[in-house]
Amino acid sequence: MQKYINRLFNLPVPYLYAVTLIAYVVIDVLCNLVLIDLLNLASVSNEVVRDQGILKTFLFAIILGPFFETLLFQFIPVKLLSTYTFFKERKLLIALISALLFALTHTYSFYYFILSFLMGGVFVFFFLIMEFRKKGTGLLHTIFLHAIINLIVFLNKYFI
Question: 136's torsion region: left (phi>0), alpha (psi -120 to 50) or beta?
Answer without folding.
Answer: left
